[in-house]
């Protein structure tokens, strides 16, 4: 079943002329920048405003929206007449911002050291609705149907990217990625079983007519005493989602993918990659939760697991049903959902109406309450987060970190711990941004994703975003990324942690950037 919910339209074009080179160290899939320092110059042509701007962008991408093709080579820039002529010359070493040449002792020239203008999102108000999104269903097992969304199917030679959602949401949370990145890649986003639109279509443990009362009929699925045969072994655990992702990649996508996961999705992405490195081209963690599950895993701790006679299977025990009813009435309340969204989004001006309505819609499914109980009481995975990380490192699975700094749940310290285990993994800390940076600042996350995937696909010939200085690889750097949203310019600060991350080196990087700014301002 396929429902087409969007239509494609023209998007803004980006040209990046870059000459920096990157190489990989032996025994590692993480890229390193070579010692030569070269100039990065990017022209951004805004189709809607009719203006052009240039900045130090690191993403290499030109999009031919008229032919519905993926990325193209540099000769494509010849068809753009808005490009400042000096910007195309090899000898030009100045800056151009908003169509004006920036030379001499100007504040604009100083700002360009730390400021980068990046593309915005497709804008529905300007007849640019982005890539077309298809809503689909895939039957993995009898009665277990997985909902997913996809975009960019026409980009047959482009890399495949799979997005995994956080707890309580679904593929709809990646709409801004599908619409935008669907112009350049083949993109999928799935709903985990037991969440979103992957809830069961039949009752796994139906109640008898005597048990079913009118007060509980709206969320009564799974509250009976007898389990249906198809649900005998059903438990919404981390291991189930790992297997779901594996078979989805093998049967639907058909080739190794780049996996991007937020919160719970980040844990599943890393956990899956630890077991199936042959199916993974790279993992991006977006504020990944560093733990999942409260009850011990029966294979990992059999003696301890025997203390807990029930671990998320159907039917639910009587005491769990009563507890679930009480908790569900609290967390499914619209006010509670609104309060949670206020917590996880640092910028309260972010529009979350669609997210709110989709979460509320999910809570009204009759199987939602029992599915929550199964998720909460499911056993832990066979590997911890750190063990999965170690396996990925041994298998040379490339990992990239993008964390919102103002996350009230997964604090920045968790991302820094991952960085210490994987010093060569690029770690971008975004501020202001909370627990869901892909939805709060999608312009920034999409820009960084394009650059990171481009770096891996080019085997290092395209540098990682923000690595315009070889020293940044070791000591890191901070940049202000600017973009236009709904006619207004917004700015987000992104700090890239270097491979020699330490508190002292962080202070060193900050002092160095300040001294450079003072030096230019005094010239």
Q: Helical residue percent?
A: 25-40%
What percent strand?
A: 15-25%
Poorly predicted residue ranges: 1-28, 31-112
In round numbers, the mean pLDDT is 80
Distance between the termini: 64 Å
For the largest sheet, list the strands in their spatial order.
Answer: 1-10-11-13-12-14-15-16-17-19-18-9
Largest sheet: 12 strands, mixed
In short:
Helices cover 29% and strands 20% of the residues.
Q: Could you please describe the fold and organization of this structure?
A:
The protein is built from 15 helices and 19 strands. With about 525 residues, it is of the alpha/beta class. The strands form 4 sheets. A 12-stranded mixed sheet has the order 1-10-11-13-12-14-15-16-17-19-18-9. Strands 2-5-6 form a 3-stranded antiparallel sheet, with no helix packed on it. Strands 3-4 form a two-stranded antiparallel sheet. Helix 2 links the parallel strand 12 and strand 13. The N terminus is likely disordered.
Keywords:
alpha/beta; 12-stranded mixed sheet; 523 residues; 3-stranded antiparallel sheet; globular
Write the layout of secondary structure elements.
Elements: E1 2-4, E2 13-18, E3 22-24, E4 31-33, E5 40-46, E6 51-55, E7 95-97, E8 100-102, H1 107-111, E9 115-117, E10 134-141, E11 144-151, E12 160-164, H2 175-181, E13 186-190, H3 238-253, E14 257-262, H4 264-275, E15 280-286, H5 302-305, H6 318-331, H7 334-344, H8 353-363, H9 368-377, H10 385-394, E16 399-404, H11 412-421, E17 427-431, H12 437-440, H13 442-457, H14 472-475, E18 477-485, E19 488-497, H15 503-522
Parallel strand pairs: 9-18, 12-13, 12-14, 14-15, 15-16, 16-17
Antiparallel strand pairs: 1-10, 2-5, 3-4, 5-6, 7-8, 10-11, 11-13, 17-19, 18-19
